[in-house]
Amino acid sequence: MRIATWNVNSVRQRLDHLLTWLRDTSPDIACLQEIKCVDEAFPREAIEALGYNVVTHGQKTFNGVALLSRLPLDEATPRLAGDPEDTHARFIEGVVSLKRGVLRVACLYLPNGNPPNTEKYPYKLNWMSRLFDYSKERLQAEEPLILAGDFNVIPAARDVHNPEAWVDDALFRAETRERFQALLDLGLTDALRATTDAPGQYTFWDYQAGAWQKNHGLRIDHLLLSPQASDRLRSVGIDKHVRAWEKPSDHVPIWVDLDLEAA
Hints:
The protein has one domain (2-258): Endonuclease/exonuclease/phosphatase (Deoxyribonuclease I, Chain A, 4-Layer Sandwich). Helix content is 21%, strand content 26%. The chain has helices spanning 15-25, 44-48, 120-139, 174-185, 211-214, 227-230, and strands spanning 2-7, 29-33, 53-57, 65-69, 75-78, 91-97, 102-109, 145-150, 189-190, 204-205, 217-218, 221-225, 233-238, 254-258. It has a 6-stranded mixed beta sheet. The chain has a 6-stranded mixed beta sheet with strand order 5-6-7-8-12-9. It has a two-stranded antiparallel sheet with strand order 10-11. The chain is built from 6 helices and 14 strands. The termini are close together.
């Protein structure tokens, strides 16, 4: 079973890219972030025509997440618990049945947090605390769980070109990395780092200053696996080539293959 995540940076602008990628790679479940449209405007028909069930949690112009699944979704729940006043569309959880038990996938778009000297950084840290609470609760079920999405977190120096330039950025500040490490300390596994220690495993290249051409990238899109999922991990891949397509997203897909069987 292949589970992928991709910040598409406007699903309507990248629809042709998304459809091409879905045809080429056929993920069983795809988590999308920054769809940047309300639910009614999501181009579900074209995606459903490829055999996907679609659930969205959209927002006009900003944010927005979606789950695409070749498997029936037994449940789909929007919003991350912990702050009833948070109206940002940044989280949706889906559940699919396996031959043994269920697979739970949380698609998330964690706040950027910049500039860090504004209210945006406390919002990011609070969101990470809520994600910690969610993860702690879900891990008690001892079932395959995947947290997939754009975390807006650079976990370590090897995950960014020129780390010294990012020390004060909200994506790389010490407190941000500590909160990410706290998720791993709960028992979650960073799928990519379970398979390679190599630097330069980037998922994002800015549109500015020739970042793509110079390979000045960041790794901020992650798949975190519960023990029951990480035990089934076969491989991880980054579809870097899609960044070279015409008018691409600034992110690329990253995916995991797991030894799980659908019901």
